[in-house]
Protein backbone atom coordinates (compact mmCIF):
# COMPACT_ATOMS: atom_id res chain seq x y z
CA UNK A 1 0.00 0.00 0.00
CA UNK A 2 1.31 3.40 -0.97
CA UNK A 3 -0.11 6.74 0.07
CA UNK A 4 0.67 9.85 -1.92
CA UNK A 5 -1.25 12.80 -3.30
CA UNK A 6 -2.92 10.48 -5.79
CA UNK A 7 -3.63 7.80 -3.15
CA UNK A 8 -2.74 4.34 -4.39
CA UNK A 9 -4.01 1.31 -2.48
CA UNK A 10 -2.69 -1.45 -4.74
CA UNK A 11 0.14 -3.79 -3.68
CA UNK A 12 3.46 -2.22 -4.58
CA UNK A 13 7.13 -3.11 -4.56
CA UNK A 14 9.87 -0.50 -4.35
CA UNK A 15 11.97 -0.33 -7.51
CA UNK A 16 14.36 2.56 -6.76
CA UNK A 17 14.82 6.09 -8.07
CA UNK A 18 14.80 7.38 -11.62
CA UNK A 19 17.37 9.86 -12.97
CA UNK A 20 15.41 12.77 -11.45
CA UNK A 21 15.31 11.15 -7.97
CA UNK A 22 11.63 10.33 -8.27
CA UNK A 23 10.37 7.25 -6.45
CA UNK A 24 9.52 4.23 -8.58
CA UNK A 25 7.22 1.37 -7.57
CA UNK A 26 6.04 -1.74 -9.37
CA UNK A 27 2.29 -2.28 -9.32
CA UNK A 28 1.24 -5.94 -9.08
CA UNK A 29 4.84 -7.07 -8.39
CA UNK A 30 3.95 -10.79 -8.13
CA UNK A 31 3.64 -10.93 -11.91
CA UNK A 32 6.27 -8.64 -13.42
CA UNK A 33 5.12 -9.54 -16.93
CA UNK A 34 1.96 -7.50 -16.27
CA UNK A 35 3.53 -5.01 -13.86
CA UNK A 36 3.24 -1.28 -14.29
CA UNK A 37 5.93 1.12 -13.10
CA UNK A 38 4.46 3.97 -11.05
CA UNK A 39 6.54 7.13 -10.59
CA UNK A 40 5.90 9.45 -7.62
CA UNK A 41 7.37 12.89 -7.03
CA UNK A 42 9.00 13.14 -3.57
CA UNK A 43 6.95 16.27 -2.88
CA UNK A 44 3.73 14.27 -3.25
CA UNK A 45 4.78 11.21 -1.28
CA UNK A 46 3.62 10.60 2.32
CA UNK A 47 4.37 7.00 3.26
CA UNK A 48 4.48 3.47 1.94
CA UNK A 49 3.99 0.37 4.10
CA UNK A 50 5.94 0.34 7.37
CA UNK A 51 8.62 -1.36 9.46
CA UNK A 52 8.55 -5.09 10.14
CA UNK A 53 6.95 -6.25 13.37
CA UNK A 54 8.92 -9.46 13.98
CA UNK A 55 12.67 -9.76 14.50
CA UNK A 56 15.12 -12.64 14.61
CA UNK A 57 18.35 -10.76 15.42
CA UNK A 58 19.48 -8.42 18.25
CA UNK A 59 18.35 -4.82 17.80
CA UNK A 60 20.80 -1.91 17.86
CA UNK A 61 19.44 1.54 18.72
CA UNK A 62 21.37 4.55 17.43
CA UNK A 63 21.20 8.02 18.93
CA UNK A 64 19.34 9.49 15.96
CA UNK A 65 16.48 7.00 16.36
CA UNK A 66 17.74 4.52 13.76
CA UNK A 67 17.52 0.80 14.42
CA UNK A 68 19.88 -1.87 13.10
CA UNK A 69 19.56 -5.65 13.35
CA UNK A 70 22.41 -8.10 13.81
CA UNK A 71 24.68 -9.95 16.22
CA UNK A 72 27.60 -8.37 18.04
CA UNK A 73 30.72 -9.42 16.15
CA UNK A 74 33.08 -7.48 18.42
CA UNK A 75 32.91 -4.68 20.96
CA UNK A 76 35.65 -2.41 22.31
CA UNK A 77 35.77 1.05 23.96
CA UNK A 78 35.53 2.91 20.62
CA UNK A 79 33.37 0.83 18.28
CA UNK A 80 31.20 -2.24 17.78
CA UNK A 81 31.02 -4.55 14.78
CA UNK A 82 27.59 -5.63 13.57
CA UNK A 83 27.37 -9.10 12.04
CA UNK A 84 24.10 -9.56 10.17
CA UNK A 85 22.74 -12.72 8.61
CA UNK A 86 22.06 -10.66 5.52
CA UNK A 87 24.69 -7.90 5.20
CA UNK A 88 28.43 -7.87 5.13
CA UNK A 89 29.85 -6.83 8.56
CA UNK A 90 30.30 -3.12 9.33
CA UNK A 91 31.30 -1.08 12.39
CA UNK A 92 29.35 1.46 14.42
CA UNK A 93 31.04 4.10 16.60
CA UNK A 94 30.31 3.73 20.33
CA UNK A 95 29.53 7.46 20.43
CA UNK A 96 26.68 6.88 17.98
CA UNK A 97 25.40 3.71 19.67
CA UNK A 98 22.69 4.09 22.30
CA UNK A 99 21.74 0.53 23.20
CA UNK A 100 21.58 -3.10 22.07
CA UNK A 101 18.69 -5.42 22.90
CA UNK A 102 20.72 -8.63 22.82
CA UNK A 103 18.01 -11.13 23.78
CA UNK A 104 14.63 -10.72 22.09
CA UNK A 105 11.57 -11.64 24.18
CA UNK A 106 9.12 -13.81 22.26
CA UNK A 107 6.25 -11.64 23.44
CA UNK A 108 5.87 -8.49 21.30
CA UNK A 109 4.62 -6.39 24.19
CA UNK A 110 7.60 -7.33 26.38
CA UNK A 111 9.95 -6.52 23.51
CA UNK A 112 8.29 -3.13 23.01
CA UNK A 113 8.68 -2.35 26.72
CA UNK A 114 12.37 -3.17 26.50
CA UNK A 115 12.83 -0.91 23.48
CA UNK A 116 11.06 1.93 25.29
CA UNK A 117 13.31 1.40 28.33
CA UNK A 118 16.44 1.47 26.19
CA UNK A 119 15.43 4.84 24.71
CA UNK A 120 15.94 6.43 28.14
CA UNK A 121 19.39 8.05 28.60
CA UNK A 122 21.83 6.68 31.20
CA UNK A 123 24.77 8.46 32.80
CA UNK A 124 26.82 5.24 32.98
CA UNK A 125 26.87 2.17 30.78
CA UNK A 126 24.23 -0.26 32.03
CA UNK A 127 24.06 -4.01 31.44
CA UNK A 128 20.92 -6.04 32.16
CA UNK A 129 20.90 -9.78 32.73
CA UNK A 130 17.99 -12.05 31.85
CA UNK A 131 16.98 -12.43 35.51
CA UNK A 132 16.03 -8.72 35.55
CA UNK A 133 19.07 -7.38 37.41
CA UNK A 134 21.45 -4.75 36.05
CA UNK A 135 24.90 -3.36 36.74
CA UNK A 136 26.25 0.15 36.02
CA UNK A 137 29.83 0.87 35.03
CA UNK A 138 31.95 1.10 31.88
CA UNK A 139 31.53 -1.59 29.22
CA UNK A 140 35.02 -2.57 28.13
CA UNK A 141 34.76 -5.33 25.53
CA UNK A 142 33.19 -8.58 24.40
CA UNK A 143 35.18 -11.68 23.49
CA UNK A 144 34.52 -14.12 20.64
CA UNK A 145 32.31 -16.28 22.87
CA UNK A 146 30.05 -13.32 23.60
CA UNK A 147 31.23 -12.77 27.18
CA UNK A 148 30.94 -9.10 28.13
CA UNK A 149 33.37 -7.30 30.45
CA UNK A 150 32.15 -4.30 32.46
CA UNK A 151 34.35 -2.30 34.84
CA UNK A 152 32.84 -1.01 38.11
CA UNK A 153 35.01 1.03 40.50
CA UNK A 154 38.23 -0.41 39.00
CA UNK A 155 36.94 -3.96 39.29
CA UNK A 156 36.08 -6.05 36.22
CA UNK A 157 33.00 -8.26 35.98
CA UNK A 158 32.28 -10.78 33.24
CA UNK A 159 28.78 -11.62 32.02
CA UNK A 160 28.38 -14.73 29.88
CA UNK A 161 26.45 -14.55 26.62
CA UNK A 162 23.58 -16.76 27.81
CA UNK A 163 22.91 -14.36 30.73
CA UNK A 164 23.04 -11.13 28.73
CA UNK A 165 19.75 -9.28 28.11
CA UNK A 166 20.58 -5.73 27.00
CA UNK A 167 23.27 -3.04 27.01
CA UNK A 168 22.71 0.73 27.26
CA UNK A 169 25.62 3.10 26.60
CA UNK A 170 26.13 6.37 28.50
CA UNK A 171 24.91 9.47 26.68
CA UNK A 172 21.74 11.11 25.41
CA UNK A 173 19.69 10.72 22.21
CA UNK A 174 20.38 13.25 19.47
CA UNK A 175 16.97 14.92 19.51
CA UNK A 176 18.34 18.14 17.96
CA UNK A 177 18.62 16.56 14.50
CA UNK A 178 15.97 16.03 11.87
CA UNK A 179 16.39 13.70 8.91
CA UNK A 180 14.68 13.56 5.55
CA UNK A 181 14.00 9.83 5.21
CA UNK A 182 12.88 6.86 7.26
CA UNK A 183 13.76 3.60 5.48
CA UNK A 184 12.56 0.21 6.74
CA UNK A 185 14.25 -3.01 5.62
CA UNK A 186 12.94 -6.56 5.77
CA UNK A 187 15.59 -7.70 8.27
CA UNK A 188 14.39 -5.19 10.92
CA UNK A 189 16.66 -2.22 10.15
CA UNK A 190 14.94 1.14 10.40
CA UNK A 191 17.13 3.97 9.18
CA UNK A 192 16.70 7.71 9.85
CA UNK A 193 18.66 8.94 6.88
CA UNK A 194 19.86 12.32 5.66
CA UNK A 195 20.55 10.95 2.19
CA UNK A 196 20.53 7.49 0.63
CA UNK A 197 21.10 5.70 -2.65
CA UNK A 198 20.20 2.20 -3.71
CA UNK A 199 21.30 -0.04 -6.55
CA UNK A 200 20.82 -3.74 -7.21
CA UNK A 201 24.12 -4.43 -5.42
CA UNK A 202 24.02 -2.19 -2.31
CA UNK A 203 22.30 0.45 -0.25
CA UNK A 204 24.35 3.47 0.87
CA UNK A 205 22.90 5.60 3.62
CA UNK A 206 24.08 8.63 5.64
CA UNK A 207 23.20 8.40 9.33
CA UNK A 208 24.41 11.50 11.13
CA UNK A 209 27.96 12.13 9.96
CA UNK A 210 28.56 8.47 9.11
CA UNK A 211 28.09 6.82 5.73
CA UNK A 212 27.13 3.14 5.91
CA UNK A 213 27.07 0.68 3.03
CA UNK A 214 24.80 -2.34 3.27
CA UNK A 215 25.84 -5.03 0.83
CA UNK A 216 24.49 -8.61 0.82
CA UNK A 217 26.52 -11.42 2.36
CA UNK A 218 25.14 -13.75 -0.30
CA UNK A 219 23.86 -12.30 -3.57
CA UNK A 220 21.99 -15.51 -4.33
CA UNK A 221 19.82 -14.94 -1.25
CA UNK A 222 19.43 -11.19 -1.79
CA UNK A 223 19.63 -10.61 -5.55
CA UNK A 224 18.03 -7.14 -5.51
CA UNK A 225 18.58 -4.49 -2.83
CA UNK A 226 15.46 -2.43 -3.67
CA UNK A 227 13.31 -5.48 -2.83
CA UNK A 228 14.73 -5.44 0.72
CA UNK A 229 13.13 -2.03 1.30
CA UNK A 230 9.73 -2.70 2.88
CA UNK A 231 8.70 0.77 4.04
CA UNK A 232 9.42 4.43 3.29
CA UNK A 233 8.50 7.76 4.79
CA UNK A 234 9.66 11.30 4.00
CA UNK A 235 9.85 12.83 7.45
CA UNK A 236 9.45 16.45 6.35
CA UNK A 237 6.11 15.48 4.74
CA UNK A 238 4.30 15.08 8.04
CA UNK A 239 1.03 13.16 7.51
CA UNK A 240 -1.95 14.11 9.64
CA UNK A 241 -3.54 11.12 11.34
CA UNK A 242 -7.12 10.99 12.59
CA UNK A 243 -5.80 9.25 15.71
CA UNK A 244 -3.90 12.44 16.64
CA UNK A 245 -7.14 14.45 16.94
CA UNK A 246 -9.15 14.72 20.16
CA UNK A 247 -12.48 12.90 19.74
CA UNK A 248 -15.63 14.99 19.96
CA UNK A 249 -17.54 11.97 21.21
CA UNK A 250 -16.94 8.26 21.84
CA UNK A 251 -19.47 5.63 22.83
CA UNK A 252 -19.25 1.90 23.48
CA UNK A 253 -22.37 -0.23 23.97
CA UNK A 254 -21.08 -3.65 25.12
CA UNK A 255 -23.10 -6.80 24.50
CA UNK A 256 -21.97 -7.95 27.94
CA UNK A 257 -19.43 -6.68 30.44
CA UNK A 258 -17.93 -3.26 31.01
CA UNK A 259 -17.56 -0.40 28.59
CA UNK A 260 -14.13 -0.23 26.97
CA UNK A 261 -12.25 3.00 26.17
CA UNK A 262 -11.10 4.09 22.74
CA UNK A 263 -7.51 2.98 22.17
CA UNK A 264 -5.11 5.36 20.39
CA UNK A 265 -2.13 3.76 18.59
CA UNK A 266 -2.89 0.54 20.45
CA UNK A 267 -5.34 -2.28 19.90
CA UNK A 268 -8.18 -3.11 22.27
CA UNK A 269 -5.91 -5.90 23.57
CA UNK A 270 -3.24 -3.30 24.42
CA UNK A 271 -0.60 -4.23 21.85
CA UNK A 272 0.72 -2.32 18.89
CA UNK A 273 -0.90 -2.75 15.49
CA UNK A 274 0.85 -5.59 13.67
CA UNK A 275 -0.50 -7.37 10.61
CA UNK A 276 1.38 -9.70 8.28
CA UNK A 277 4.69 -8.82 10.00
CA UNK A 278 4.14 -5.10 9.28
CA UNK A 279 3.97 -2.59 12.13
CA UNK A 280 1.41 0.19 11.77
CA UNK A 281 2.35 2.92 14.23
CA UNK A 282 -0.82 5.00 14.08
CA UNK A 283 -4.42 4.00 14.42
CA UNK A 284 -7.49 3.47 16.57
CA UNK A 285 -8.51 0.33 18.45
CA UNK A 286 -12.27 -0.19 18.79
CA UNK A 287 -14.63 -3.03 19.57
CA UNK A 288 -18.27 -3.73 18.79
CA UNK A 289 -20.54 -1.96 19.26
CA UNK A 290 -18.84 1.45 19.30
CA UNK A 291 -18.56 4.79 17.52
CA UNK A 292 -16.26 7.80 17.62
CA UNK A 293 -16.72 11.29 16.15
CA UNK A 294 -14.02 13.80 15.18
CA UNK A 295 -14.50 17.43 14.17
CA UNK A 296 -12.70 18.44 10.96
CA UNK A 297 -11.73 21.64 9.27
CA UNK A 298 -13.05 21.87 5.72
CA UNK A 299 -9.70 21.58 3.96
CA UNK A 300 -9.45 17.80 4.06
CA UNK A 301 -10.39 16.04 0.85
CA UNK A 302 -10.00 12.37 1.86
CA UNK A 303 -9.47 9.87 4.66
CA UNK A 304 -7.29 6.87 3.86
CA UNK A 305 -7.09 3.90 6.26
CA UNK A 306 -6.64 0.19 6.63
CA UNK A 307 -9.06 -2.01 8.54
CA UNK A 308 -8.52 -5.42 10.13
CA UNK A 309 -9.31 -7.55 13.15
CA UNK A 310 -6.39 -7.50 15.58
CA UNK A 311 -4.07 -10.51 15.32
CA UNK A 312 -4.63 -11.24 19.03
CA UNK A 313 -8.15 -12.41 18.05
CA UNK A 314 -6.78 -15.18 15.84
CA UNK A 315 -9.55 -16.39 13.52
CA UNK A 316 -12.23 -15.01 15.82
CA UNK A 317 -14.01 -11.70 15.48
CA UNK A 318 -16.40 -10.42 12.82
CA UNK A 319 -17.43 -6.79 12.41
CA UNK A 320 -19.06 -4.44 9.96
CA UNK A 321 -17.55 -0.94 9.95
CA UNK A 322 -18.82 2.35 8.61
CA UNK A 323 -17.54 5.85 7.91
CA UNK A 324 -20.08 8.67 8.13
CA UNK A 325 -19.52 12.33 7.27
CA UNK A 326 -21.33 15.46 8.45
CA UNK A 327 -21.91 18.17 5.84
CA UNK A 328 -22.29 21.93 6.24
CA UNK A 329 -26.08 21.47 6.65
CA UNK A 330 -25.43 19.20 9.64
CA UNK A 331 -26.69 16.15 7.79
CA UNK A 332 -24.96 12.81 8.37
CA UNK A 333 -24.48 10.52 5.40
CA UNK A 334 -22.97 7.07 5.10
CA UNK A 335 -19.77 7.55 3.08
CA UNK A 336 -18.60 3.93 3.23
CA UNK A 337 -19.62 0.56 4.69
CA UNK A 338 -17.37 -2.48 4.83
CA UNK A 339 -18.07 -6.05 3.96
CA UNK A 340 -17.81 -8.46 6.86
CA UNK A 341 -14.32 -8.07 8.36
CA UNK A 342 -13.13 -11.32 9.95
CA UNK A 343 -10.23 -12.40 12.11
CA UNK A 344 -7.30 -13.80 10.16
CA UNK A 345 -7.96 -11.72 7.05
CA UNK A 346 -5.39 -9.31 5.63
CA UNK A 347 -6.08 -5.59 6.16
CA UNK A 348 -8.45 -3.90 3.72
CA UNK A 349 -7.37 -0.42 2.59
CA UNK A 350 -9.91 2.19 1.65
CA UNK A 351 -10.18 5.86 0.72
CA UNK A 352 -13.27 7.91 1.62
CA UNK A 353 -14.00 11.43 0.38
CA UNK A 354 -14.13 14.19 3.00
CA UNK A 355 -14.88 17.02 0.59
CA UNK A 356 -17.25 19.42 2.38
CA UNK A 357 -17.24 17.37 5.60
CA UNK A 358 -17.17 19.17 8.95
CA UNK A 359 -16.97 15.97 11.01
CA UNK A 360 -16.34 12.27 10.49
CA UNK A 361 -17.61 9.28 12.47
CA UNK A 362 -16.21 5.74 12.57
CA UNK A 363 -18.48 2.91 13.75
CA UNK A 364 -17.86 -0.74 14.54
CA UNK A 365 -20.94 -2.99 14.61
CA UNK A 366 -21.48 -6.69 15.20
CA UNK A 367 -20.86 -9.14 12.41
CA UNK A 368 -22.62 -12.48 12.08
CA UNK A 369 -21.05 -13.88 15.26
CA UNK A 370 -22.07 -11.14 17.74
CA UNK A 371 -19.07 -10.08 19.87
CA UNK A 372 -16.37 -12.77 19.94
CA UNK A 373 -13.07 -10.90 20.23
CA UNK A 374 -14.31 -8.14 17.92
CA UNK A 375 -11.08 -6.11 18.12
CA UNK A 376 -11.17 -3.80 15.11
CA UNK A 377 -8.06 -1.86 14.13
CA UNK A 378 -8.30 1.32 12.03
CA UNK A 379 -4.77 1.40 10.62
CA UNK A 380 -2.89 4.57 9.64
CA UNK A 381 -6.06 6.71 9.27
CA UNK A 382 -4.48 9.50 7.24
CA UNK A 383 -6.16 12.83 6.55
CA UNK A 384 -5.30 14.06 3.05
CA UNK A 385 -5.53 17.75 2.18
Quaternary status: single chain
CA radius of gyration: 23 Å
**Largest beta sheet: strand ordering:** 7-6-11-16-12-13-14-15
Q: How much strand content do the residues show?
A: over 45%
Q: What coarse outline follows from CA principal-axis ratios?
A: globular
Q: What is the number of domains?
A: 2
What class, by secondary structure content? mainly beta
Q: What is the helix tally? A: 1
Head-to-tail CA distance between termini: 19 Å
Give the mean pLDDT: 89
Low-pLDDT residue spans = none
Question: How does the major sheet shape up?
Answer: 8 strands, antiparallel
Work out the number of β strands: 36
Helicity, as a percent range = under 10%
What does this 3D model show about the protein?
There is one protein chain. By secondary structure, the protein is an all-beta fold. The protein folds into 2 domains: 50-238, no CATH class; 240-384, Jelly Rolls (Sandwich), CATH 2.60.120.1060. 3% of the residues lie in helices and 47% in strands. The protein has 1 helix and 36 strands. It has one helix spanning 108-118, and strands at 2-4, 12-17, 23-27, 36-40, 45-49, 59-62, 67-69, 71-75, 79-83, 90-93, 97-101, 125-129, 134-142, 148-152, 155-159, 164-168, 181-185, 190-193, 195-198, 203-207, 210-214, 229-234, 240-241, 249-252, 263-264, 273-275, 278-280, 283-287, 290-295, 302-309, 318-326, 332-337, 341-342, 348-353, 359-366, 375-384. The protein has an 8-stranded antiparallel beta sheet, covered by helices on one side. A hairpin with an 8-residue loop joins β3 (23-27) and β4. The longest helix is centred in the N-terminal third of the chain and has 11 residues, at 108-118. It is globular and about 75 Å long. It starts with a strand and ends with a strand.
Amino acid sequence: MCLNAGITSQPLEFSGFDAERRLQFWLAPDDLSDAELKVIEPGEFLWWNGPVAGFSQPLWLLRDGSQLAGNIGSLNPTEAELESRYWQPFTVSRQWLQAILVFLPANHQQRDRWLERLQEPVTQDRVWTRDGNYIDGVVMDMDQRGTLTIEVDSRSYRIEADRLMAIAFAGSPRSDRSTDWEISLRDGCRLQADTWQVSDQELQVTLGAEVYTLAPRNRNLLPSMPREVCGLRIRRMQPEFLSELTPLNYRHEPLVGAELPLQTNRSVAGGRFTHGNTLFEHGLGMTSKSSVVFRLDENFRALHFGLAIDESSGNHGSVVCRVLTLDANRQWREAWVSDEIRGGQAPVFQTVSLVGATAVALTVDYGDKADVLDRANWLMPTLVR
